[in-house]
Design a protein that fits this description.
The structure is a single chain. This protein has 396 residues and is of the alpha+beta class. The chain has 3 domains: 161 residues, Reverse transcriptase/Diguanylate cyclase domain (Alpha-Beta Plaits); 51 residues, 5' to 3' exonuclease, C-terminal subdomain (DNA polymerase, domain 1, Orthogonal Bundle), CATH 1.10.150; 142 residues, DNA polymerase, Y-family, little finger domain (Dna Ligase, domain 1, 2-Layer Sandwich). 40% of the residues lie in helices and 21% in strands. It contains 15 helices and 12 strands. The strands form 3 sheets. The protein has a 5-stranded mixed β-sheet. A 4-stranded antiparallel β-sheet has the order 9-12-10-11, with helices on one face. Strand 2 and strand 3 form a beta hairpin. Helix 4 packs across helix 13, helix 11 crosses helix 12 and helix 13 runs antiparallel to helix 14. It binds magnesium ion. Magnesium ion binds next to strand 1.
Length: 396
Amino acid sequence: MILHVDMDAFYASVEERERPELVGRPLVVGGSPTGRGVVSAANYEARKFGVHSAMPVARALRQCPELTIVRPRMELYVDISKQIRAIFYQFTPDVEPLSLDEAFLDVTGCESLFGSAESIGRRIKQQIRSQLHLVASVGVAPNKFLAKLASDLEKPDGFTVISPDTLHATLDPLSVSRMWGVGRVTQRKLERLGISTFGDLRRLSSAQARQLFGPTGEHFWNLSHGRDDRRVVAERRAKSISHETTFAQDIQDLEILLAWVLELTEQVAGRLRSRQLMGKTVNLKVRYSDFHTITRSSSLDHASQSTDEIWQVASKLLRTSLPERPLDIRLLGVGVSNIQRHRPRQLQLFDEAGQPIRPALDKATDEVRKQFGRHALRRGSTLRHTRSRPRPELEE
Ligand SMILES: [Mg+2]
């Protein structure tokens, strides 16, 4: 069985935890309202005013004048993400993070030690609450697609189990828009054919589905039956580390896309550092509104775990390597491959002549501070990204 654990309004909830006086008030984590700042995350109070991620902060303020705006503190979120992951690892080594606040866990075979998948899910949710004072929504299901769907069904503070017995009863009434890979265009196309729910699609034969939609028809048809055979890929076995996000609205603005590349890079680099890894090849993935998807890669001259170095390459790929066509982007991803263990040169305590050199730890700490300081500055600029609520997405 697979668990999908997804933190509720993660950045905003962390800020509420750090500043209890903000609890119960509408709050967003985002950029400057006077510049082009946009909302990274909105708490549920703010959402009542129609404020959502990906919205310009200036507009959010018009809709909700008493809104509190907090600047993102990415290093804090990375740190808490590590603590959440440490809870996961108490139960299973098979953890596949999707982003700082979301992961798949394969708990198959852990039942004899820790009880059923459902009780493991409940314990994880409980531990996140009691130890970290944060709330996660959890989905428990036989595969990744269903687990991710499940964690979203009763969000926030959700806990949903989809078992083979309840599968069709749960899935059939759901809108096809919840399927990975069904965007607005496909949804409209399906609806024109009278298919608006999983159940409508499931009742076709696979041949009909193929006939109507080609090879992707069969993929959607399998999803309507709740079938998905992708495995959970544990991070320590991963050959690459990446983060991607699908925007609620397609983005045309290069500046906003660049700010997104920075956020995705920070997540990737944070994971590299927390796992003592470095990557040499930087990958950028772009999916256009028509689902045309391209990836571009470029290698650094040395393996790195630095946000800045990876960002230089990733942002250059975005600026210079895309085809000549209008920007109209639905999904953006940043990753690194060519992964290797981090072996800091600073660990050397004496130089060639046997003279003590600056203690390794100090230097490493300084470097981290320097790095975070730089990014804090960058984050304080008016350039902000949109943080949209990720749509379920077809994975390659
Ligand atoms: Mg989340």
